[in-house]
Structure formats: structure tokens, C-alpha cells
Write a sequence for this structure.
């Protein structure tokens, strides 16, 4: 026994579009709810959901006239939508192609003067050696920072401030003891 498998959302959407393209008519929701299960095998409970998703994606047009909503989709609209999308993609493709060419030109232009030569190689080695020396000297300078006169003066000032704060707190603490 094989179980009956339901349709996926995409299959339902495709079959719903077939209803519109084959009949080329305008429908109300109740008409579609009657036609879809009989002709295309779409479950009645999902007809409204599928139709709304098609309307949201601008594949089916919907217009409210009085108290009723009317739905329609014609093959020519789908064709025009595909043509517009194709034109947009073509424009985007040409723009990106031009961008790629300009970037390639910039890369080629930046390569000029950077060819691998012996002089360039020696200059790069020298640059690397100077960078290493600079980082070594910075580390050495950081090590001797404690002996810097400006840093020592800052430490003296902070020590004076700390002593004053200690004196304040100990005097306040002694006064509290005397009042008890």
C-alpha cells in the first residue's frame, strides 16, 4: 500500500497558475476554492494560502470591487515580468563586467613599478630588518620606562595624594572611635 503524498507549496503554486493561464478568466475566491481541488488536486484548506502567496509575489493580480475580491493572471503578464527581470539582470551583468574591468586595470596599474628585481628584494629585506630593529628598540624603551623622570614625578604626585587620603581616613576612623 502506498500512501498518498501531498503536494509541496511550489507544486500548488504552479498548478494554481495553470488554472489562471488555461482559463484566462477573472475569479473570485469562492470560485477558485471550487475549481482548484477538482481540476488540479489542491486541497481546499490550502487554496487561500497559495493564492495569497501568489498575490504577494505579484504573480496574480487582485482587485477589490465593492465587497468582493477578484483575482486574475494572464500569460502575457508573466512573460513581461520575465522580460523585465531579464533586462534588469543584463544591466546588472554589464555594470559588474565594467566594474571587473576597471578593477583589473587598477590592479595592472598598481603592479607597475613593483616588478620583482634584485634592488626591490634588497630594499624589502632592509625594510624588514629596520622594522625588527624598531620593535626591539620599542621593547627596550618600554623596559626603561620606569626610570623616566616624567614617570617618576607622576609616581611621586600619586604617592602624595595617596598619603593624604590615608591620613584623612585614619583621622576619621580615630574620631569615630573617640565618639563611641
Amino acid at each position: 500500500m502506498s500512501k498518498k503524498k501531498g503536494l509541496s507549496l511550489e507544486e500548488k503554486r504552479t498548478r494554481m497558475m495553470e488554472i489562471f493561464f488555461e482559463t484566462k478568466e477573472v475569479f473570485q475566491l469562492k470560485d477558485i476554492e471550487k475549481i482548484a481541488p477538482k481540476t488540479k488536486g489542491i486541497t481546499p484548506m490550502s487554496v487561500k494560502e497559495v493564492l495569497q502567496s501568489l498575490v504577494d509575489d505579484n504573480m496574480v493580480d487582485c482587485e477589490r470591487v465593492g465587497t468582493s475580491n477578484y483575482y486574475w493572471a494572464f500569460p502575457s503578464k508573466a512573460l513581461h515580468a520575465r522580460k523585465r527581470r531579464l533586462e534588469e539582470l543584463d544591466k546588472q551583468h554589464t555594470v559588474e563586467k565594467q566594474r571587473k574591468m576597471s578593477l583589473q586595470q587598477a590592479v595592472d596599474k598598481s603592479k607597475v613599478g613593483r616588478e620583482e628585481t634584485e634592488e626591490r628584494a634588497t630594499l624589502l629585506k632592509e625594510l624588514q630588518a629596520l622594522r625588527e630593529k624598531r620593535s626591539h628598540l620599542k621593547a627596550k624603551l618600554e623596559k626603561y620606562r620606569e626610570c623616566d623622570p616624567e614617570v617618576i614625578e607622576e609616581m611621586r604626585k600619586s604617592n602624595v595624594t595617596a598619603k593624604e587620603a590615608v591620613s584623612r581616613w585614619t583621622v576619621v576612623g580615630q574620631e569615630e572611635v573617640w565618639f563611641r
About this structure: Strands lie at 27-28, 61-65, 68-72. The two ends are 96 Å apart (CA to CA). The chain has a mean pLDDT of 85.
